[in-house]
Amino acid sequence: MRVALLGCGAIARRSHLPALQAAGATLTAFWSRTAVSAEAACLEAGTGQVVQDWRDVLVRDDVDAVVVCTPNSLHAPQALAAVEAGKHVLVEKPFAVDVAAADAVLAAASASGVVVMTAHNARFSPSVVAARHAVHQGDVGSVTAVRAVFCHAGPRAWAPEATWFLDPDLAGGGALLDLGVHLVDAVRFVLDDDFTSVAATLAGGTPGVEEDGLLLFDTRKGVVGSLHAGWRAPAADFGLTFVGDRGRLVVTGSEALLHGPDGERALELAPSPLTVQSAFVEAVATGRAVPPDGHDGRSAVAVVEAAYLSAREARTVQVG
Q: What does the buried/exposed string (b/e) look like for 192-226 if buried means 16 or more CB atoms within 10 Å of the residue's CB?
């Protein structure tokens, strides 16, 4: 499988490039808004060539698939163009900055038959996978409530050179769109459930780029919950708590602890056989998208879009 990288910033070079190569893909083309980033990624890959215009990538016959790692507002337009050119696409989160753009990509993918997936990598974490198994085995009973948090020091700490995170036109949102989509997808994955309504508040940052977002939600199965995504934490903080009528499951990035009538026990964590990149490579080989696919990406964007509307209008909003 021959892959082009659109966007060669921190996430592309630290995560996607090595994971794609580990999955057996060959990197053949690189484009980035800054030529220096594309040249660095090409050098690190040891294969392929730098392309001056991203549209030129889509007409190359040595490109089977495209991984989109550009600023958020470019995700859907570039994914749409790639799909229309017959290329398979893996889109870095968020899948789009709004539901309308996500739906345009999905409609094109349905018409063309190419694989479209989104990089919600939290669902590949061993602790999150273990949580899903525990919930579906009934270890916590019927889940009634969820608490979810994902905070860190923000884009200035993660990638100081990526100033686009603070530009509302390029970012499309702040911490909720950046980190909140991970939490939405993890909750949906563990529970096999969908968010139905949200009530949100935003804090910090500048107009259109919040540093903290907090939302209350309910789900199709009657679960209630809270979700906090933030860029102002001095240290990384990731946690999911699932409360059921038989127990409580606490998930972090490194462990999953089940609290029940017989005390506390740690769930066994098995190394994940897949990454989101290797799942994408396998999906392209079979010609069939697997979760997290474009619909999972759209679902997360729909929750965040509803949250932004809720915060603007100070009311509870149904998720589209």
A: ebebbbbbbebeebeeebbbbbbbbbbbeeebebe
Q: How far is residue 146 CA from its own chain's centroid?
A: 19
Enumerate helices (H) and strands (E) in the chain, giving the number of each.
Answer: 13, 15
- Of the candidates 291, 306, 313, 305, which has an alpha carbon nearest to the alpha carbon of residue 128? 291
Q: What is the dihedral of CA 213, 217, 223, 229, to 10 degrees?
A: -10
* Token representation of residue 166: 């603070």
Q: Which of 290, 268, 294, 295 is nearest to 278 (CA)?
A: 290
Burial of 92 (0-12, 13-18, 19+ CB in 10 A): buried
3-class DSSP state of 81: helix
Put simply, whether the predicted model's pTM sits higher than 0.90 gets the answer yes
pLDDT in tens, 5-48: 999 999 999 999 999 999 999 999 999 999 999 999 999 999 99
**Which DSSP symbol is given to 61?**
T
